[in-house]
Design brief:
Elements: E1 2-6, E2 15-19, E3 31-41, H1 43-51, E4 66-74, E5 86-90, E6 104-108, E7 112-114, H2 121-126, H3 128-141, E8 149-152, H4 158-169, E9 173-178, H5 181-190, E10 194-197, H6 203-210, E11 216-221, H7 227-231, E12 235-243, H8 254-258, E13 262-265, H9 270-274, H10 277-295, E14 303-308, H11 312-321, E15 327-331
Parallel strand pairs: 8-9, 8-11, 9-10, 11-12, 12-13, 14-15
Antiparallel strand pairs: 1-2, 3-4, 3-6, 3-15, 4-5, 5-7
Helix pairs in contact: 3-4, 3-10
């Protein structure tokens, strides 16, 4: 099969299109052989390419956590799927288990969901990681409730634009930060109630004005750096902050402590990294819930650009350029 392999840690040019052996199903298990149609490209892919995978001793590596495709073969223990079913999932791509920058992959049926019937394989491949991240951040780490007010940093980004929609589906009011009028128009279409141009105005003052000085119930940081620390003053006393980035070592926590904030750290890769089957099964369940939302028109994932598999280098370059609106996807065949 054709696959893009990572030959070493480094620049995007370490990614090469090669012929590699097609994976096969072990005997008597619950795994699926999936013929991949498309694969999502996420910032984690570029970070692993830059610094090396979590399993540096297992090179060459195939990156890509997100995949969408058609079941080609099933293990003897498979119960939920059959050959020809269309599926999407987030599994592999961290080193160790093969990722989805390839024409085929093997994944356990318990970690997979049926692809939303109403969307293309490209849209489905863009979705899993950001759906799971936003879902866990808002609904599980942040314990979002109807009627609450939420600040979402980077609302036009991959995770951010999904988080806006999930927050609105829960019945929350949403304030979000963006960098341009085009992105402002985009997030308003998704349901954002208040939009802040963070490069032009102080988001702290804007959020406090929006909430009458009280602060939001939940702040969701998808940006990192100093944004986390600067967000503490805009969260109400006893409120919640969730970040998907590792807090900086020099983060000052005094305001968070004085306001008695509950801080949540979200890393949706934990079940893969720790080998936690229950967590991976839960991810499949989240994707099935989101498929229903997508099929009823209540949730969508924006695709910014599609590249053929052979142009994975260019796809990584676009992701690393930053300030994207939506997701980047690789298409296995033209």
């Amino acid at each position: 099969m054709k696959a893009v392999v990572m030959t070493a840690a480094g620049s995007p040019e370490v990614l090469e299109l090669r012929e590699v052996p097609t994976p096969t199903l072990p005997v008597g298990n619950t795994q699926l052989l999936v013929r991949l149609v498309a694969a999502g490209v996420n910032p984690i892919d570029t970070k692993l390419r830059q610094r090396g995978t979590f399993y540096p001793e297992e090179m060459l590596a195939i990156l890509g956590c997100d995949g969408a495709g058609v079941v080609e073969a099933v293990g003897a223990g498979v119960e939920r799927f059959r050959v020809g079913d269309e599926v999407y999932f987030c599994y592999g791509g961290l080193g160790g288990h093969q990722g989805n920058y390839a024409e085929y992959n093997v994944v356990d049926e318990r970690f997979v969901a049926r692809k939303p019937a109403s969307v293309s394989f490209v849209e489905a491949a863009a979705a899993p990681l950001v759906l799971i991240t936003a879902w866990e951040s808002l609904y599980e780490r942040g314990r979002l409730e109807p009627g609450e007010r939420v600040l979402i940093h980077g609302g036009a980004g991959g995770v951010g634009h999904v988080a806006i929609q999930l927050a609105k589906l829960k019945g929350a009011s949403v304030c979000t930060t963006v960098s341009s009028q085009e992105k402002a128009d985009f997030v308003k279409e998704l349901g954002a109630d208040e939009v802040i141009f963070y490069q032009e105005t102080d988001f702290v003052n804007e959020v406090l004005n929006w909430t009458g000085g009280e602060g939001v119930d939940l702040a969701f940081d998808t940006v990192g750096g100093e944004i986390l620390q600067n967000t503490f003053p805009v969260v109400r006393v006893y409120g919640d902050v969730v970040t998907i980035l590792e807090p900086r070592a020099d983060t000052v926590w005094k305001v968070a402590r004085l306001r008695n904030l509950r801080v949540g750290l979200e890393l949706m890769l934990t079940p893969m990294l720790q080998g936690l089957e229950e967590g991976l099964i839960h991810h499949g369940e989240i994707l099935q819930e989101c498929a229903s939302l997508m099929d009823t028109g209540r949730l969508k994932v924006e695709v910014a650009k599609v590249f053929p598999l052979a142009e994975a280098v260019q796809a990584h370059q676009v992701v690393e350029s930053g300030s994207m609106q939506g997701k980047i996807v690789l298409l296995m065949r033209d």
